[in-house]
Amino acid sequence: MVLPDADLDNTVNALMGAAYGSCGERCMAISVAVCVGDQAADALIAKLAPQIKALKVGPGTSPGLDMGRW
């Protein structure tokens, strides 16, 4: 749950780790994030979307990837 006064930098880091850490294959992988209020949601999406788009995904044997299949 993301409240309107949340520190968005910390929130984005936590969400990225929970969603994409270990390729999403761990028992604590995130399935949903709930924002309280439209402003909080818009602000979170504005910070989160570029980080998701910047993820480098590919075969796990390729160098320089953030996520890959092993």
TrEMBL record:
Keyword match Oxidoreductase: yes
Keywords: NAD, Oxidoreductase
Gene Ontology MF term list: methylmalonate-semialdehyde dehydrogenase (acylating, NAD) activity
One BP annotation, GO: thymine catabolic process
Enzyme Commission code: 1.2.1.27
Database matches in InterPro entries: Ald_DH/histidinol_DH (IPR016161), Ald_DH_C (IPR016163), Ald_DH_CS_CYS (IPR016160), Aldehyde_DH_dom (IPR015590), MeMal-semiAld_DH (IPR010061)
Domain Aldehyde dehydrogenase: 1-68
Record flagged with keyword NAD: yes
Protein name: methylmalonate-semialdehyde dehydrogenase (CoA acylating)
Naturally occurring in which organism (per UniProt): Chromobacterium violaceum
